[in-house]
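PROTOCOL LOG
Step 1. Enter all chains and additional molecules of the complex.
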Amino acid sequence: MSTRLPCATAVSCPNIALIKYWGSQDTERNIPANGSISITLAGLETTTTVTFDPDLATDRLILNGAPRSDSSLTRVSGHLDRVRRLSGLTTHAEVISGNNFPLGAGIASSASAFASLTLAATQAAGLELSPRDLSRQARLGSGSACRSVFGGYVEWHAGDSHETSFAETIFPPEHWSLVDVVAVVNREPKPVSSSTGHGLAPTSPIQTGRVADAPRRLDGCRQALLERDFDRLAAIVELDSNLMHAVMLTSDPPLLYWSPSTIMLMQEVVAWRKAGLGVCYTVDAGPNVHCLCEGSNAPEIARRLRAMEGVLDLYECRPGPPARLMETSAR
Ligand code: DP6
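Step 2. Run joint prediction.
Step 3. Record the structure below.
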C-alpha cells in the first residue's frame, strides 16, 4: 500500500508594478479599484511545498526555516481553506516556504508567496487549474499574487467580480530587456501593511481622480511597452507612482512610506534622465526605489546607485518566468 501523501512544490517570482494596484472595490476578494501592469522579476524566487497530511490537527507554516503561529499562519490557513473548499479535501497541511531574497529587500514577497502557495496547494489537492483560474485563486490570497502567476509583462484586469478579475501576460519576457535595479535604503519590514493601505485609499480625496484616470495610464503603458518607447514609459511610470503616493499622503490617517534617501534617489534618477541616461523610478509601499532602465544602461545605473549614500543593497532583475511546479520527493 502506498503511503505517499498529497504533496507539491511550486516556485514563483515577485513582480514590480508599473501601473499600481492601490485600493479595492471588494476587500474580501481583492477586486482592485483599478487595473495594473507589472513585470515579473527573474532571479528572485519563493519556493513553497504543500503536503496535506491526515495526521495534522492544524495547518503548519514554516517560513524561511522558522515555524510561524502568527497572522501569517492565519492568512495561509485561510487560503488553504479556499483550496479545500474547491477540492473537497478536509485534511490539514504543512506549508514550507522560503525565499532566495531577504524579506527586508524591499521587494514584495506576498505576491510570490501566494502565487507559489496557490500553485502548490491546488496541485497537491488534485486540482488542475488553468493559469487564469490559478490567477483568480492567487488573487484571493494577495491581490498582486495574481500577476506573479504569469511571466514577463503582465496586466491584471480589474474586472468587477471573481470571474472577471484576473491577470495575463501581455508581452513575453524577451519582448523588451528592461531591468529593475532595486536600491534598498531600508531593510526593515514596512510599518503599515498594503492590506491596511488599500483600506485607507478611499479616504483620500485624490483616489477618485487617480482611479478615473487609470484606463488612460494603462493604455499609455501598454502602448509604450509595445513600441519599446522608454521616454513615454518613464513619464507614465513616475506619474503612476507619484499618484499612488499622493493618495497615501492624503489618506486618513496619512501614510508616508518614504525616507529622506527615497526622495534623494527619486531626484537623482530624474536628473540622470534629463541629462540623457534612460532611467525612471517607481516606489511601492516602502522606502526602496526601483530604478527601471533598458538592459544596456543597467551597469551604469547600478554603478551610480552603489556610490550613493544611503543605498544598502542593490538587486538587478530582468523580466522573469511564470510560476512553475517542481519535482517533489515522496514522503
Ligand atoms: C504598492 O498585493 O501586497 O505593491 O492584496 O492586501 O496582499 P494585498 O496587497 P498587495 O498590494 C500591492 C500594492 C503595491 C502596488 C502593486 O503591486 O500593484
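Step 4. Note key features.
The first strand starts at residue 7 and ends at 12.
The first helix runs from residue 71 to 87.
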